[in-house]
């Protein structure tokens, strides 16, 4: 009898473990608040062309083991899986607000607007597009932010 009680006790603990693991998993599917704020800005900047649901159909994941060379990637949707934006957590942690915004906008440029890279530069060496292969400085982002947003949406024909 004692043994059965013990087995019941441990299987209950085991079951609770599964339930709490599943809750934690479901929780992680919702993008972090800071990404939600960027998504809301992106919707406003697109003049309401996209809905929140359309954008959050894309999954946002962090990855942790990296040499820092690739700071983010859009994995395109397939017939069996939705698009995923993967972000280098170590880089994300040290990025400023505008750098994070530029990273998310760039990846949404791939995943949502289906844009490729555009690698030209102004005379001051700032890129002419957020869709440049390489991330740029905070100075360039601040100087050209309004232009970059316009360029992103005009190029894809959204506005
Ligand atoms: Zn890219």
Please, could you describe this protein's structure?
This protein is mainly α and 159 residues long. Helix content is 53%, strand content 9%. The protein contains six helices and three strands. The protein has helices at residues 2-29, 33-45, 52-56, 89-94, 97-111, 138-155, and strands at residues 59-63, 72-75, 84-88. It has a three-stranded mixed beta sheet with strand order 1-3-2. Residues 18-28 have low confidence and may be disordered. It binds zinc ion (ZN). Residues 106, 110, 117 line the site of zinc ion.
The proportion of residues in beta strands is 5-15%
Query: Which small compounds were modeled alongside the protein?
Result: zinc ion
CATH architecture of the largest domain: 2-Layer Sandwich
Give the C-level CATH assignment of the largest domain.
Alpha Beta
Number of domains: 2
Q: Assign a percent range to the helix content.
A: 40-55%
Radius of gyration: 21 Å
Q: How many angstroms does the end-to-end distance come to?
A: 72 Å
CATH fold type of the largest domain: Zincin-like
- Please report the total strand number as a whole number: 3
- What's the order of the H and E elements? HHHEEEHHH
Strand order of the largest sheet: 1-3-2
For the sheet with most strands, the description reads:
3 strands, mixed
């Amino acid at each position: 009898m004692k043994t059965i009680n013990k087995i019941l006790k441990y299987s209950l603990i085991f079951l609770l473990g599964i339930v709490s693991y599943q809750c934690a998993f479901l929780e992680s599917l919702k993008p972090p608040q800071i990404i939600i704020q960027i998504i809301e800005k992106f919707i406003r900047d697109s003049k309401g062309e996209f809905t929140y649901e359309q954008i959050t159909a894309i999954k946002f994941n962090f990855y942790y083991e990296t040499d820092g060379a690739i700071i983010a990637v859009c994995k395109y949707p397939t017939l069996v899986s939705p698009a995923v934006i993967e972000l280098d957590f170590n880089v994300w942690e040290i990025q400023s607000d505008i750098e994070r915004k530029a990273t998310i906008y760039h990846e949404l440029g791939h995943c949502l607007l289906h844009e490729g890279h555009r690698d030209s530069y102004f005379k001051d060496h700032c890129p002419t597009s957020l869709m440049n292969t390489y991330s740029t400085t905070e100075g360039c982002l601040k100087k050209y932010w309004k232009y970059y947003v316009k360029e992103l949406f005009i190029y894809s024909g959204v506005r």
